[in-house]
Amino acid sequence: MSREADIASEQAYFDAAAKHRDRRRDDLRQLPSAAAHTGAAAHLRRYAETARRALGSAGEAVAFGRVDAETGETRYVGRHLIRDADGGVLVVNWHAPAAAGWFEATPDNPAGVRRKRAFTCTGNTIEDITDTIMAEIAEAVDAQLLAELTRGRTGSMRDIVATIQAAQFALIRAPRDQVLVIEGGPGTGKSAVALHRVSWLLFQHRADMAAADVLVVGPHPTFVRYIGQVLPALGDEGVELRDVGRLAPDVPRGRTERDAVARIKGAARMAGLLARALDARIGAPDPAERLLVGGRFVTLPGVEVAEALAAARAAALPYAGRRQLLRDRLAALVAARTGVDPAGADAVGNLVERLWPQQNPTGFLRDLLGSTARLRAAAADEFTSAEVAALHRRGADRLSRETWSAADLSLLDELAYLIDGPGRRYAHVVVDEAQDLSPMQLRAVARRSATGSLTVVGDLAQSTGSWARDSWDEVLAHLPTGHPARITPLRYGYRVPRQAYATAVPLLSVAAPGTAPVEVVRDGPAETGVHRVGLAELAGRAVTVAREHAEAGRFVGVVCPPRQRRPVEAALAANGMTWSSADRGELGGAVNLISPQEAKGLEFDAVVVVEPEEIVASDERGHRLLYVALTRTTGYLDIVCTGDPVPLDAPARPRPPVDDEPDAAFTRREAHRLAEHLAGQLRGAAPPAFWDDILTQVRATLRPTDPVSSGPADAVSPGQPQAAVSPGQPADD
Ligand SMILES: Nc1ncnc2c1ncn2[C@@H]1O[C@H](COP(=O)(O)OP(=O)(O)OP(=O)(O)O)[C@@H](O)[C@H]1O
């Protein structure tokens, strides 16, 4: 048969299948009106709605492939199941076991498949067909895959269902009851595979798992928006997608803090500190508690109140539940003495509030972080005094004005759990870019898993930030252990073309020694462009390069370190260009401005990386961050720099030990004590007339380059102990 005849005969099949799909859609539309009463109609409407979604949209291609078995049997494979009027299957949906041959058959292992035929369509019209005869090809040259990989990108990830590769398929269909770690280099399809795995699991376990029972956690809001369309396109509406910060209560965000502090807040031992601090709010009763109930005084012996308190403390309930228990017990004690149920009596409520004050996460955390005394008491011997000092901060004057850092969010979530108990839990949880999450963030993910069934996605070579990892064990240690964990690699790089990856790959030897590079599957359209310029031209050149790509119709990402952001924005504005900014949660304009951290998980047709040396210097694992930046392209890569385009020797930012940080190591209380000690020495050693002079000289000795000031008030520099000049000032809290 000629190619044209082939296409025509396939088109006839497609048209017939589309007709049956339309007929089924019509039937479903009629269904609710066939109900005998309103309750049944509502039920039928829901059923019809779900069934209609499972048919896909009216205009889409009925199938993306056809599998011809050695036995002569033929199967069409599509996103959705299509039957004829007698119930015969015209197209199998991709999740069905009958479709497995499409994904699993490779030239090395044809698994009974003689031919795979891929359809390229516009709507339901076949434009082209590509045949792979298993016995005739020596290696996997998958034209359909290559066409798919070189298609222009937008701000939304697409589904890959038509071109899922065999190794990916094995992970998509792996059993549910495990912690499946999908690891692999940039662009190996980890995120795509994890999302298709959700669709697969929802189909296989449809009897006991609905879309709303699945949670997908991403690293930041832009990423979550980027992947948001994949599951709906596969017919799975209703899966919950959140960035890791959105696991916490909804509070004003955006507070910045030093990495060293974020690191302390992210440590698992913070959970113990919070629990102890909460426990410390529980008070002790007076020897006798006198209450006015219903116009009568009732005295409860302190011992009995203490017993009620001890019983509440011992209950296996969250803080609020145990508080209620205490309330019930105290009410029972009052009722036993008065014969009246005191439910709702203020006096009981007041006593409960004194002994077991009501708490909410934000108010509690603000008070805790604002008090060195509370922090120190709760720290036990698990935190150094320098760490306690680093945690301390002065809160906003009103709780409503408080803003919270990223690391605070997981503390708030932990507190919500300690106070009110576990919230919503899910039958399956996917966590993407998991390699960067702190133990406290991982705890927030873990407590949302009802069953211990998780898909964990990431790449250690891309792990950066306060909690950069070198081993999956460090991540798994904080995740549920009810099911076995399995680490499974993906090897082939589908996103990044050969030229761009060749630019990035030398970084691996510094960033993650021992990590195998990905095996790139295709060539790109151009060599990497390196633009070395003077500092004054840096932003302007970056914008010129970005504009050229945008004018050629490409979706462009400009990866820009923080210090270059303003100049690049100014240059974009000066060129009359509009742009989307990932830090405003936008993505999708022709030009997108992103920080190296925000670049994680994203991809563009063309990427312009600005000043790699600064990217390296901006993180303790800066070489990994640059590796991330250079591997975001599906086509073109340009580097605009004043120095080395791929600086292997440039130093990454060292992690400051907490002890070296002045405000962390040295509290105001300690400063106050030292000032008193020095003042005592001065008082004993010299007459008052010389004190100013001596203090001025002390300052000059300590900081010889400072201009020597004359007045006594200047004898203490900013940041130095103020208490030296006002010893009566109360220290700390
Ligand atoms: N089998 C496939 N068919 C078509 N496209 C694919 C396939 N596998 C991966 N891709 C494409 O490759 C790109 C990279 O995929 P994805 O973002 O899932 O990779 P990743 O491993 O999560 O990358 P990173 O580590 O950089 O976040 C996406 O555009 C995806 O659609």
From TrEMBL:
Keywords: ATP-binding, Helicase, Hydrolase, Nucleotide-binding
Binding-site positions, ATP: G184, G185, P186, G187, T188, G189, K190, S191
GO molecular function, one term: ATP binding
Top-rank lineage group of the source organism: Bacteria
Residue ranges of domain UvrD-like helicase ATP-binding in the record: 163-497
Any one Gene Ontology BP term: recombinational repair
PROSITE patterns, sorted: UVRD_HELICASE_ATP_BIND
GO cellular component: cytosol
Protein name as catalogued: DNA helicase IV
Keyword ATP-binding: yes
Gene3D superfamilies: P-loop containing nucleotide triphosphate hydrolases
Organism: Micromonospora yangpuensis
Database matches in InterPro entries: DNA_helicase_UvrD/REP, P-loop_NTPase, UvrD-like_ATP-bd, UvrD-like_helicase_C
Statement: the UniProt record of this protein carries the keyword ATP-binding: yes
Record region (Disordered): 702-733
